[in-house]
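Final report, closing paragraph on structural work. Over the funding period we assembled a curated collection of sequence-structure pairs, and we close with a single example.
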Amino acid sequence: MFELRGNLTKLQNISLGITGAVVLIGLWWLLAEMLAVPALDYRAPSLDDPALQHLNRDSLLRADSIQFANAKTVGKIYKILPTPLHVVQAYPKLMNEDQLPMHTLHSIWLNLKGYFWAILVSLLMGGLIGFIPLFRGLFARPVDALRYLPISALTGLFMLWFGLGDNMKVAFLAFGIFVYMIPVIVQRIQEVEDVHLTTVYTLGAGNLQTLFSVYLPSVLSKFMEDLRVLTAISWTYIIIAEILNNTGGLGSLIYWLARRDKTDKVFAVLLLIILIGILQDRLFVYLDKRLFPHKHYKTKVDGLKEVQTGIYIVLGVFALAVVLPLVVAIPDSILVQGSGLLVLAAIGLILMGEVKLLKGLQKV
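Its predicted structure, as stored:
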């Protein structure tokens, strides 16, 4: 276990992971107890109390000091850092008092919309710069330099350009993502191996066939891994954008909870964001395995076609749900019902394919 770049067994991985989690929770609990302050059965006297009106200032201060000195400790106040137990107990309160599900869905929807526009712009601009020397000479260096922009310093400009609504949040998030994505797309295009290009040219493929048969599969298969890296960045930007106007979302909720000294609820929301980020990362891993099976499976397996078709349907429905409201005025009820039925059908197709895939992998 102490060997340089040594490997752990599966049992060691599990046991050490559990131990590490327990140690971190224990340290968190210990630090919370150390930072806690005692709660006293003491209440400062009210100056409006008729019984105190006859006392002068010195007498009032003396009585207050005596009462404070004789106060007894009745518990602890965890104002700076709540314990893990307090954080867990905050979730029912967040559900009942602060509309946590609504804020969570709002943030997830904005996050997905920001990803959609960032990916679309990145593929278009990155493709032009990566494939065509004219655009590469004109824009490669300026676009690469955009990565050094302090994105959080641009919030005022985005508020000026897009207002304070959700459009500003989506635009801010999309910009924060695609300034990193575009140089990555250009790099992935340059990394396509010459042996593959030589092979398709030898077989008589034209530029368009080469684009769809070699470049796109190669670039997109690596691009999926790059998207995972940007998951944490995307949540950072969406929280910043939501704090700006406080009209909904987890960022807005965190802002108002912190203003009211609800640190237990703040930590609960932060842990929820971490959980969503982990699930989003696992989703990208799943999509990578199913959409680019050549990276993970050595042989063709039954069920992949059904799974891929279902995934493409879900992605297509999502794209339409983002773009259509900008083009055509569609009532939300019709949009939700129509897209919901398609998504349910696609999920059924994915599950059917997964069953076939599981059986096929067991035979291999």
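Residues 100-131 form the longest helix (32 residues). The two ends are 33 Å apart (CA to CA). We thank the funder for supporting this effort.
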